[in-house]
Amino acid sequence: MEIQRLNPRLASLQTYPFERLGALLAGVTPNPALRPINLSIGEPKHPTPALVKDALAAALGGLSVYPRTAGLPELRSAIAAWARRRYALDALDPETQVLPVNGSREALFSFTQALIDPGKAAKVVCPNPFYQIYEGATLLAGATPVFLNDGMGFDAIDWRGVQLAFACSPGNPTGRVMNLQAWRELFELSDRHGFVIASDECYSEIYCDEAKPPLGALDAAWRLGRRDFRRLVVFSSLSKRSNAPGMRSGFVAGDAALLKTYLLYRTYHGSAMSHSVQHASIAAWKDEAHVRENRRLYAAKYSAVLPLFDGSSLKAEKPQGGFYLWIRTPVDDAAFARDLHRQYNVLVLPGSFLAREAHGTNPGRNHVRIALVAPLDECVEALGRIMQFAKAL
Ligand SMILES: Cc1ncc(COP(=O)(O)O)c(C=O)c1O
Predict the structure, then answer these.
(1) pLDDT averaged over the chain?
(2) Which atom in ligand 1 lies closest to the alpha carbon of residue 102?
(3) Which residue out of 18, 108, 130, 239 has the highest number of ligand 1 atoms within 8 Å of its CB and is therefore the one to mutate?
(4) Which of 55, 175, 199, 263 meets the CB 3.0–4.6 Å disulfide criterion with 217?
(5) What is the DSSP letter of 39?
(6) How far apart are CA 270 and CA 67, in angstroms?
């Protein structure tokens, strides 16, 4: 293969965190006396609800047609109705303000390609630590990522030349949720500098307190009187909400003008959702009982594992959303993950692999991300082992 003929931007992509984890653990033999427990990957493991599987099976006839990129009107209506209920919106037009996508990952990526004008020294703001797709999408679109470290105010960076800003709320890996004031500030910056906001909300339905669902960007915009959602697009997904990561189903919603252009891009990109998956998605968006049950399972895990931190040198807090624990390590995070694997056969993800050096620091350093995706007993056992491990540090 003539490598030099490939898109040279591919060379700027960074190694994916799980590849780095694989390299870190190469040659390390985990303790064979303990069963392996993997809490490194954020892949939901609770069962996919029967109502979703049944709807998919009942709609297999959909495989015989080419779907339209805009999706079935019934799906767009189900999504719009869900978003209106979830975010207390008086209106969200299924025709113009909603589009189905094949999971939020491809949408975050393709939206960036559709939006960026690389001729203008484009900058894209990414949270740090972050989901690496933001950075890859930015680089392949010919833009430069600008990192906003966890805990920094928006005034820490120069917003001139920014074309797109990613927000991730609830955040992966931190679990932090942006409040109304933060959204107000980001919207004001967007008005001043003209950039678009891509709000990644794929963890929006995973939270512990039923009375306090995380604030979403559509909700924030609506409350702040931005009822046309100008320059805002939200990315949502069934992967975590409905334990259906293999279905590749999500949606984008927001600014109608942006979605019109994005739909044009998607038609060429060839990313229409199969009718079978669309029907299963309609069933999923219309049902909340399975989502509440899913939350109950995660909440039970937090209730079981957080007390294990009492008296430990490690500290953990219940996140505002998502299914991670983001904990500070008393030693280098990569060494922590490697030695934990060797001694206790538990896999966690080093925080520095999820972040970039920016503003003089890697904000993921000396942190690890623990995904509470395994069954409750495995999570408890893993955290018990982590506490044992930490005692000797
Ligand atoms: C922050 C974040 N955004 C987006 C995604 C993509 O999810 P999906 O493509 O399954 O919707 C993930 C998956 O782990 C994620 O952690």
Answers:
(1) 96
(2) 9
(3) 239
(4) 199
(5) -
(6) 10
Task: Tell me the chain's radius of gyration from C-alpha atoms.
Answer: 21
Q: State the burial class of residue 51 (Cβ atoms within 10 Å of its Cβ: 0-12, 13-18, 19+).
A: middle
Q: How far apart are CA 132 and CA 150, in angstroms?
A: 15
Please report the pLDDT score of residue 392 as a whole number: 92
Let me know: does 100 contact 279? Beta carbons within 8 Å.
Answer: no
The answer to whether residue 5 scores a pLDDT higher than 80 is: no
Would you state the pLDDT for residue 120?
A: 85
Ligand 1 atom with the shortest distance to the CA of 108: 4
Predicted local confidence at residue 23, as pLDDT: 96
- Which atom of ligand 1 is nearest to 43's Cα? 14
CA 151 to chain centroid, in Å, comes to 18
Query: Residues 251-269: pLDDT tens digits?
Result: 999 999 999 999 999 999 9
| Global pTM exceeds 0.90 | yes
pLDDT (tens digit, 9 = 90+) per residue, 151-191? Answer: 999 999 999 999 999 999 999 999 999 999 999 999 999 99
Tokens 């209920």 identify what position?
85
What pLDDT, on a 0 to 100 scale, did the predictor assign at position 4? 64
Q: CB-based burial of residue 348 (10 Å sphere; 0-12 exposed, 13-18 middle, 19+ buried)?
A: buried
What per-residue string of b and e applies to 229-254 under the rule 16 or more CB within 10 Å gives b? bbbbbbbbbbbbbbbbbebbbbbbbb
Report whether 69 contacts 271 (CB < 8 A).
yes
Tokens of 78: 């189900």
Question: Ligand 1 test: best mutation among 104, 200, 236, most atoms within 8 Å of CB?
Answer: 104
Confidence of residue 119 (pLDDT cuts 50, 70, 90): confident
DSSP structure string for 71-129: --HHHHHHHHHHHHHHHT-S---TTTSEEEESSHHHHHHHHHHHH--GGG--EEEEEES
Q: Which amino acid, residue 64?
A: S
Q: 3-state DSSP call for residue 254?
A: strand
| 199 Cβ inside 6 Å of ligand 1 | no
pLDDT tens-digit readout, 209-241: 999 999 999 999 999 999 999 999 999 999 999
What's the CA dihedral at 320, 89, 98, 76 to 10 degrees? 100
